[in-house]
Structures
1.
Amino acid sequence: MRYVFLTGATGGLGRAVVELLSRRGYGVFAAGTNERRIAELAELPRVIPIRADVTDDQSLLAARETVLSHTPSLYAVVNFAGLTAFGSLVEGDCIPTIQRLLDINVTGTARVNRLFFELVRAGGGRIVNCSSEAGWMKPQPFAGAYFLSKRAVEAYNDSLRRELMFLGVPVVKIQPGSYRTAITDAVNEGFERMLGETRLYGRVLSRMKPMMDQELSRSGNPRALAAVVLRALEARRPRLRYRAGTGKLLALMELLPDRTVDWLYRLACGRVSRAE
Ligand SMILES: NC(=O)c1ccc[n+]([C@@H]2O[C@H](COP(=O)([O-])OP(=O)(O)OC[C@H]3O[C@@H](n4cnc5c(N)ncnc54)[C@H](OP(=O)(O)O)[C@@H]3O)[C@@H](O)[C@H]2O)c1
């Protein structure tokens, strides 16, 4: 049986991947921290739920022991653990948010791959890292912590690929657009919190809201992304990156110069005078 270790298995996208892999006959070590959702994963065939926090070496070492008690090697490690955030980089204290996102999205991914690498190599396997459209697109306002963490995931992923190519271990990145999961709720909650607290950006946020709602309302079904991840896992020669789910409007904005995009955001959301 092919075994996969997957973080973020308790989340919207990760759970969809676990379900698909389970149906395809894979053995899945499905990792997360939420006890209730971990317990629910146990109902799926060939799924072994594991409690593992990607910010904690000891917790991941214990997870590796569990994996080793079933198999000496892995077909793949898939990193889906990740957080988002919505907020200002100057109003309030963004530093704890940035640190948390870097710790989970970036260092967490690096920690998992470092600790599970030998099992992947032993299995002739591959590593899949979840980036985002935030990993390659022009940043949107008030999503700075998330964009900078996913840009770092991209740099980490590409560096890892350039290293592991010498060993014949493929490293693949997934760049999802917008999908309906708890992350969508987190963005909305962050927006409402910021709107309630801001001194500077009340008007800008109110004008931005319809655009945000429109973007979030066309979020895709996580099952569609799971099919993309399966392709990355089963391709004999996987692509370097798999992009899916990015909206046409955002994709079009990528064709414009940065200053034009700045101008469009200011046109749509207005300016804040120095007196405000
Ligand atoms: N949904 C989208 O539109 C979208 C778009 C682009 C990229 N992505 C990326 O896709 C990945 C999955 O996101 P999602 O949409 O499925 O979000 P989600 O439903 O909120 O799931 C997030 C997952 O991350 C796990 N996680 C968070 N902190 C963790 C920690 N310290 N240790 C271990 N696991 C941790 C959560 O597990 P517990 O709750 O059990 O801790 C959960 O399984 C993320 O990397 C995200 O950036 C999502």
2.
Amino acid sequence: MTHNPLLLLLFDSSGRSSELAKALQGKALPLVILRSEAEARRWLETNQCQAILLAVSSLQPHGVFLAELQEAASQSAILVAASAPSVNDAVAALQAGAVDYIEAPVSESRLDEALDKAGVSRLLPPAGQSQAKTRKGCAAIIGTSSAMRQVFSLINKVCDAETTVLVRGESGTGKELIAQALHYEGVRGTGPFVPVNCGAIPGELLESELFGHEKGAFTHAIRTRLGRFELANGGTVFLDEISEMSPMLQVKLLRVLQEKEFERIGGTKTISSDFRVVAATNRDLEQEVEAGRFREDLYYRLNVIPIEAPPLRERRQDIPLLVEHFVARFNRLRKKKIKGVSDEVMARLARYAWPGNVRELENMLERMVILAGGDVLSVADLPERLLEAGAAPVERLEALPEQGFFLNEVLSDFEKRLILQALEQTDWVKNRAAKLLNVNRTTLIEKMKRFKLVSSSAEA
Ligand SMILES: Nc1ncnc2c1ncn2[C@@H]1O[C@H](COP(=O)(O)OP(=O)(O)O)[C@@H](O)[C@H]1O
Ligand SMILES: [Mg+2]
């Protein structure tokens, strides 16, 4: 099988990496092994892969190559395995965009976890259904807030239905997890789950990615290649960032949704495949339709059942659970024994606006666990942006008004309201209000004058 292989790059001379190669070969994965940077460059010129596992002794001498890989194989998930691991390398790898950094010796379960993160497990023969359910179903989604309970209840209602589902929500809110839960909790759960990121794959490639192509269909079509729709037979196709699809592909997609039949690029044979579609978007699709960028008929076809993934700032009560979940997970992955976070850290996490939602929280905790000084994460471990005083009460706006707005006016109005709130909260004791706002008393008095703020009881 030549589809979506896992590319294993062995640049490690310690001998450890051959154990890794053996472990991978035992998994019946479509695996390609290369042993030098030059070989890897050449292979990537004409091939694509789901994931790249870079096995090195230490990352340092390969830093430039890793950055190059990010560019050359932007659709592949990159894993780094190091036989001489270090904290610096771990941080550098994650900063460069690697999805995981694995330290030797690598246990079987640790390797599986990394492959899972890289989306490789779907290339493996299907595991028992019960296992799939507990690992990828609703159980993988953390949250007990009413907003999340609503999501779970919708998933349970529609997972067995064949209807198309549109998962909506900001980036990092767990849309892909919801799509996976719909698949693994449902009757198709033993079939393949096939994700396609319509935003990450350039237009021309996306078409052949979805529909496949016949040998010779275009210059680089060296062999026949099955598309994702075909690979998803018996399972679910997850079309992520659906709003990014070109108008030409939108037409083709509509036809596939209606007929479940299509041709490979350059082919004449009609292929039929039995798959369910779950799509996701972080855009306002109605607005895209209005602006003429998204087909209305396709919109109705996809939006049969919408599921809303709530932003983290609207379900702050889930933050402690998520923190506990991620700390436990990164303890396991990073071989650490962090007990938790201090009360003050928890208070700050609970107040922060989380523009990047759960993904931001997850990434932040991963770095904190790796870099932690003590066994409880303290304020000193928090990144700068969480310490900025202003970060606390400011919420991200859904969208800025199309016609524009006056930044200075909005800011000064906001400033006035915050000062008023601080004064009310401190019974108009200026010393305390100034302390709460972290400004000088004289500055506060000046601002009160400017905004004509006086206590109504003082007036009386
Ligand atoms: N409710 C949740 N519980 C646990 N992990 C979550 C939750 N929501 C999101 N995540 C994690 O956050 C990251 C982003 O989630 P993802 O589904 O890719 O978001 P989206 O597709 O909406 O951008 C993933 O690593 C995912 O595992
Ligand atoms: Mg996503």
